[in-house]
Fold this sequence. Notes:
It contains 14 helices and 7 strands. It has helices at residues 3-13, 34-40, 42-76, 80-91, 96-105, 110-113, 117-147, 204-219, 239-250, 255-264, 271-280, 285-293, 297-311, 333-346, and strands spanning 23-27, 30-33, 171-173, 193-199, 224-230, 319-322, 325-328.
Amino acid sequence: xxxxxxxxxxxxxxxxxxxxxxxxxxxxxxxxxxxxxxxxxxxxxxxxxxxxxxxxxxxxxxxxxxxxxxxxxxxxxxxxxxxxxxxxxxxxxxxxxxxxxxxxxxxxxxxxxxxxxxxxxxxxxxxxxxxxxxxxxxxxxxxxxxxxxxxxxxxxxxxxxxxxxxxxxxxxxxxxxxxxxxxxxxxxxxxxxxxxxxxxxxxxxxxxxxxxxxxxxxxxxxxxxxxxxxxxxxxxxxxxxxxxxxxxxxxxxxxxxxxxxxxxxxxxxxxxxxxxxxxxxxxxxxxxxxxxxxxxxxxxxxxxxxxxxxxxxxxxxxxxxxxxxxxxxxxxxxxxxxxxxxxxxxxx
Length: 348
């Protein structure tokens, strides 16, 4: 475990209830500490601490506003409720011109376009009033933080750099093309940059990243290796069968070919489609069909991938770890490049 991660964990536990005891549980007489559990589940523990911080911040704001409206009410010789309502009424005023301008901007929105004109105006006005009111409230909070009237004393957690070691059976690519499966310029842990992708084949956001991922792989070829791990989401029924088909193709050295084809045709992930793709790749069909029908250890590997992602805090796709730095969502090329350049600078 890296020293920075140790310090992070110690800082987390020094401010919460777990600090009262380092023991987490005991099994057959063997005690496991909280730090040991956290080491194996860094992402989940960080997310818990982040949620705790966000909860404390929200509760602090609620308590501040309670005191704030009481203060304003006393100054204006009214009630806290009226003081707040008067403020919100003034802060959330929206001109007819702003409503008209916004309506013109969103007139083709599928849900809005189905409504009668008067209802469209009503919903736009309510949206704008709600936005203006919220911004005004946040302005009060920002001013209070700056003046010291509101001070959050609970420390915001710092996300760790995660331990994401590669495993036997991980599929690796070293360049932008499907056949870039042999080390180019770097090999194994000698690669300055390792990207571990958690994705699944029904995820529309995952497919959007592929062009930028190829651009990154081309730009940093010789310095980078890219790993994909399956993270099929439970509400995507064809994600797991597609992952099996890709791994069956991997058994014949064609994982990345199948990977690209499955993402190209996300709306067509039937068993027949898998067979069609396999034939187009000139795979040995007897071996491929047998593998798909009886995947054996492949299902265990998919579960292993999913479990490893969950321990790292992955709860949706796509998610990426660039030298252990966690990124989530359909990120643009510029964000990948920013994190990669920072990682390379640290190695100089």
